[in-house]
Amino acid sequence: QQQVKQSPQSLIVQKGGISIINCAYENTAFDYFPWYQQFPGKGPALLIAIRPDVSEKKEGRFTISFNKSAKQFSLHIMDSQPGDSATYFCAASMGTGANNLFFGTGTRLTVIP
Amino acid sequence: KAGVTQTPRYLIKTRGQQVTLSCSPISGHRSVSWYQQTPGQGLQFLFEYFSETQRNKGNFPGRFSGRQFSNSRSEMNVSTLELGDSALYLCASRPIDRGVSTEAFFGQGTRLTVV
Lengths: 113, 115
Hints:
B: mainly beta, 7-stranded mixed β-sheet, 52% strand
C-alpha cells in the first residue's frame, strides 16, 4: 500500500501566490522527510528536507511544516513563480538499515503568470 | 563535483530481451539505489547497494537484478523484458553516515521503452 499519501494531484496557482502540498504517513519509524522537485526529462532534485525533531524548516521561499502527532507534513512555496512549475514529490525514509525512500504520488504544480 | 551519471539516457528494447543500465555515483558516495518511475505507480524502490552488497530490496520480481563494483559504480539488469517494464529508471547515490538517512542525489535516468 502507499506508505506516503500526497495531495493534491495537481495544483494551479497564480504568480506571487502560495502553493501548498500536503503529505501524510503511517509508519512512525520514518525519521527523514525530503521534498523533491522534478522537471520533465530530469531526475528528482532535493528541494528541502526535515527531521521529526523540528516542526518547521525554511529555505528561501520553501518551507516544510511538520506535525509529528498527526503524522503529516506539508510544503509551502511562497511567492510562487512560473519557474516553480514542476512535479513535486514528498518522501520518507527510516534512519537505520532500510533507508530507501518511500515516495508520494506527486503533485503537478502550474504557476500562471 | 560531477553528479550522478546514468547511461544510456534512452533505450528501446523488444519484449523478451534483456537490458543492462549503468550508474556512476557521485565521487565518494558508496550507496547506490535504483528506482522505477512510471505514470501509474510513481517512484518505486528497486534495490540498494552498499560496498558491493545488496542491502535492501523492493517488491519487484527476480527478473530485476543489480550489482555494484568496487569503485561504487552500479548496474541493473532486467531480463525477459515485458511491456510493463517501460519506465524511467533512476539511480540515486548517497553518502553513508552511521546509517542515518541522508540526502539522495538522483541522476537524470534511463528511459526504457519495451516494444
